[in-house]
Amino acid sequence: MGSREFSRGRRVVARLPHGGDLLAEIAAVAEAHGMKTAELRAIGALQHARLAFYDQQAKEYHEFAVDEPVELVSVLGNVSQRDGATAVHAHASLAGHFGGTIGGHVAPGCTIFACELILQELVGEPLERAYDEQTGLPLWRGL
């Protein structure tokens, strides 16, 4: 186990644009405010979604589409750096007219209907992602 202490920095609240891609818009807000490391949470609605499940044996993501309007019940995640670029890692819970929920790793292709985002900056040496041989995932290094 590794850990590092951060101080709380600025808190940014944003309304993400209708029709935008969820991951790209979160990254754009972080970049606009110079946030290299942050925790995130969001609520809202999506016109359609793309989520994924990580197959631990095959070490690969399997994406699936939710091709109908859904409520964005909760998005939790973080912002860090990967190869010098902003990396958003988020998981979402979605609810539709069916009354149940579905969730997973947020993949590109989630089209925003409406979304309210809160970014909490974490002040300290920025977290960097790098390939982890054991899991096959880009995990935080140096912890």
What do you see in this structure?
8% of the residues lie in helices and 59% in strands. The mean pLDDT is 97. Strands 1, 2, 3, 4, 5, 6, 7, 8 and 9 form a nine-stranded mixed β-sheet that branches. The chain is built from one helix and nine strands, in the order E-H-E-E-E-E-E-E-E-E.
- Report the strand count: 9
- CA-atom Rg in angstroms: 15 Å
Order of helices and strands: EHEEEEEEEE
Query: What is the count of DSSP helices, taking H or I runs of 4+ residues?
Result: 1
Strand content: over 45%
Main pleated sheet: 9 strands, mixed
Number of domains: 1
What number is the mean pLDDT? 97
Quick one: CATH superfamily? Hypothetical protein, similar to alpha- acetolactate decarboxylase, domain 2
User: What is the CATH architecture term?
Assistant: 2-Layer Sandwich
How would you summarize the topology of this molecule?
Elements: E1 7-16, H1 22-32, E2 38-55, E3 60-66, E4 70-82, E5 85-95, E6 101-106, E7 111-123, E8 128-131, E9 138-140
Parallel strand pairs: 4-8
Antiparallel strand pairs: 1-7, 2-3, 2-4, 2-6, 2-7, 4-5, 5-6, 8-9
Task: Give descriptors for this structure.
single chain, about 140 residues, mainly beta, 60s Ribosomal Protein L30, Chain: A, nine-stranded mixed beta sheet, 1 helix, 9 strands, about 60% strand, globular
